[in-house]
């Protein structure tokens, strides 16, 4: 419920109760005046609590300008000849520039007397929350230079076991020496890049974590003996839930045998059905319960996360089996991996998004592969002279050196389909190249795996959540009235307008490091609050962008000496309501004490 409505409801209940108590008094003398005084007292209290503003015109001229100094300002650009009013929100700036008036919040600028008509902001500017406190006060921005250091960053903070941590960003090197940007974890340098002198360059660092659970890596920028940046990179690595794979083979073969062995060695549950003759099958089970695979039904297929088979085998399924498989893929989200050869070309429902073309060569070719997520090309592999024609709504996963698609994926109703023309990946295992084999099949299985929706999803809305800084968290859940705790303390939620499943909470972290958030009795989730001195260049860069955007709304090109009127939201002074409350309470006290 909106905070304003809560306050009004409480005041209404309080007013009804107070009036009822006045009516119940034995003495009816001055009853009307006492009721008025009670209502005035309650109204004054409500106005003190609520943020009341009114729309008014202010004159923008030299006489009502003010200056706000923020980090990075240049004293040379400060011209106070027209108006000596100078403010700051920084204790450091106040110490360096004693004439500046130190404010506790940006909102105090809107309450200054006489009213500020136009605010000159110098330096890196204000963040989004501080700008909101200005209540549309016109701003002219005098930005500082982009700060040296890391001014943009992103990384995949939530990983699965075996996934690669990728850290990408840009670094502004304002010095005359090269800067080395290093990714460190568990006391080891995992990757590094160099930023040349007097340039702004992007960097791309990666590593594969060998641990599970939470860990904090470091992103460090150094120039010889100087450390220019030392920032936290929090990462959570979750163990992979073992998937269950149903393999349908036309006959026992080496490709399926090697794949089955690799799957079982990596903890997957595998059931294999191989045709021996018509309506007769051999069956194998590893890490899954034994059950009859002689006839595919919706109940049987639903027990698996992925179905893997050759296209020719899937075409030979009888009508009931084909219908059961199609229903589970399209409606229940079961993933499917389909292998095809160079002759495959049909309108079969599993090939509609993946037309296969044959290359005009004499026979098979040998080529290395480019596998999505891998920097280096794979070892060479014997390939059929066929490739998949690119289509809309499909994602290439594996290509050859001529960028012809050998494996691709797409959505298939509620499920996902992976289609490939690779039929001899066992050659990697026979030559001892398990790395490329693992990279390929891990990718194909991940892309096809049945998706299990999480009951809730958390996201940090704030750019860099830091200690003693307002942090916004967003929760998406199907719960009608979610109850959350952060670090075991209850936190109120506000529903986002127009999104009944989305809620937002505000929190002020009291300590740096991992913070726990939990909805009801659900599993605890974790997020990270940074020390205040980290990611300063990033914060300043964001403040520059936010303040430029805010200032661009106003016509700052006009001369400030010209009389200009601007409509703004002006906060109502609370002093009037304190006086009303005090007067009403004084009358009630005096009337009860002295009235005969």
Summarize the structure.
The protein has 596 residues and is of the alpha/beta class. Helices cover 24% and strands 35% of the residues.
Strand content: 35-45%
Uncertain parts? 556-564
> How does the overall form come out from the CA principal axes?
extended
Structural class, from secondary structure content? alpha/beta
Q: How many extended strands?
A: 36
How many distinct helices?
12
Q: Can you walk through the features of this model?
A:
The chain has twelve helices and 36 strands. The model is unreliable at 556-564 (pLDDT under 50). Helix content is 24%, strand content 35%. The strands form nine sheets. A nine-stranded mixed sheet has the order 17-16-15-18-19-27-26-25-22. Strands 4-3-2-5-6 form a five-stranded parallel sheet. Helix 1 packs antiparallel against helix 2 (31-49) and helix 2 (31-49) runs antiparallel to helix 12 (575-594). Strand 16 (269-277) and strand 17 (280-286) form a beta hairpin. It is an alpha/beta fold and 596 residues long.
